Structure formats: structure tokens, C-alpha cells
Amino acid sequence: MNRNGDLIEAEGLCKIYHTEGEDVHALRDVSISVARGEFLSIVGPSGCGKSTLLYVLGGLTTATSGSVRIDGQNLIGLSDTALSRVRAGTTGFVFQRFNLFPTLTVRQNIVLAQEISRSGARDMLNADEILSRVGLRGKERRRPSELSMGEQQRAAIARALAHCPAILLADEPTGNLDSANSEAIVALFREMHRDLRQTILLVTHNREVAEAAERIVQMRDGRIVHNS
Questions:
Q1: How far is CA 55 from CA 49, 52, 63, 67, 159, in A?
Q2: What is the pLDDT of residues 96-147, one digit of tens each?
Q3: What is the pLDDT of residue 127?
Q4: Nearest Cα residue to 217 out of 200, 203, 196
Q5: What is the percent of the chain with per-residue pLDDT over 70, rounded to a whole number?
Q6: Domains of the chain by range and CATH?
Q7: Given this model, what pLDDT does residue 118 score?
Q8: Are 13 and 27 within 8 A, CB to CB?
Q9: Are 153 and 116 in contact (CB under 8 A)?
Q10: CB atoms within 10 A of CB 166
Q11: 32 neighbors 218 (Cβ within 8 angstroms)
Q12: Mean pLDDT of the chain
């Protein structure tokens, strides 16, 4: 597992959800390494465990067993406060449903993310630079409801970039978009990877979207079945 330059290292991850009368195994002994600056996609059908893996790697949920190391630091066993500090300092998240604050403008969403992350982040991007990078200059005073679906996702990406994270985790970022907007968002991820050298993990069920990455990991039934 240990390779020179790995930023993310996970070994033997298992995640079990306890429901009424049944244990659901979302992850089954998953091990994966992601190099610093790598663009990786995780592809597979709904329910295969790919989003669960992303959330465990990002510290949004904890594994039942196994280890996750971000830049050498093991996330397993950290308190909620410590996990929040790690996320604030290293990771940006992009979700399928955007998760923007509806009463705030685009700029206010970015500034709020910077304020939340300020204690843990090592650097900050200028809000105008972020808006220019995602193609939203001139729309910074609009609220999410005044944006198209594609623009909302761009705003969500801008918010994720607010504290210049080393790692960008994206969960089905094109899932709610038409083909034209999907292609534009994929192109934006490629640009960020090229220009900012971010480590990007992108979860998708769409093979065409997955092929934008340098490496594709395929999951099925909670396991990695192919790693190219």
C-alpha cells in the first residue's frame, strides 16, 4: 500500500450499517492509495459503496474497521473536533445536490466557507479569482435560485475551492446536469487538476465522466473489482 507520494492511504476498510434485523455491508475490506496530485474516479452502479468510500476517505463518516491516512495522519479514532480540523485544512467537497446556502449570494457562500475553514486551512484563494476560474464573474451577487443548474454546480465547486484544499472530493457532481453542463463541469475538473495540481477523487456512475480521470477504480458490492 505505501507508495512514495501517496496523500491518501486506506487499508482494510469495512463499513457496516445496522438496520432493523439486518446488517448492510457497504464496504468490504477495501484498500486504496491515491497519489498526491492524482485525478482518480470511482465508478460503479448505485449501492456499490462508492459514495460511502468517498465519505470515509473524507472523514465525513467513520469506517467500522480499517485505517485511513491523510498525509500520514490516521483519521480513525479522531474526535469530531479533530476530524473537522483535518477536513477544514485539507479537503473540499462537491455534492450532487450542490448544498449551497439558499439565502446567501454566490460570493457570500464562498466567503462563509473561507471563514469556516480559516482556522485549519493553510491558504486561501481570492474570491474573485475563484469566481473567474469557475466562470461566474458577474453573477457573484445572485442567489442559488437565480442560477441555472450548471451554474449552481459551478458555485458549489467555487465554494469547495475557497480554502485552496489539497484534496477535492466530488460525489456524482454531474448527476443532476444535462449532457452539455456535464461536459462543462468535467472540463472544469480537468482544468483545476492541471492548473492547481489538486488531488481529485470523483465518484460517478457514468463511465464517460469517469474517463476524464487519470485512473479509474471500479466498485461492485462494496469491493474494488478493478483498478486501472
A1: 10, 5, 9, 13, 18
A2: 888 899 999 999 999 888 887 765 445 556 788 888 889 999 999 999 999 9
A3: 82
A4: 203
A5: 94
A6: 6-227 (3.40.50.300)
A7: 64
A8: yes
A9: no
A10: 22
A11: no
A12: 89
18: how many CB neighbours lie within 10 A of its CB? 9
pLDDT in tens, 176-212: 899 999 999 999 999 989 988 889 999 999 999 999 9
C-alpha distances (whole Å) from 123 to each of 11, 33, 81, 104, 134 are 29, 25, 20, 23, 19
Confidence of residue 4 (pLDDT cuts 50, 70, 90): low
C-alpha cell at position 142: 445572485
Quick one: which of 59, 1, 36, 70 has its CA closest to 224? 1
Q: For the purposes of burial, counting CB atoms within 10 Å of the CB of 5, is it exposed (0-12), middle (13-18) or buried (19 or more)?
A: exposed
C-alpha cell at 199: 488531488
Burial class for 206, CB neighbours closer than 10 Å (0-12, 13-18, 19+): middle
The candidate with the shortest Cα–Cα distance to 87, out of 64, 112, 119, 53, is 119
Q: What is the pLDDT of residue 1?
A: 43
pLDDT at 3 over 60: no
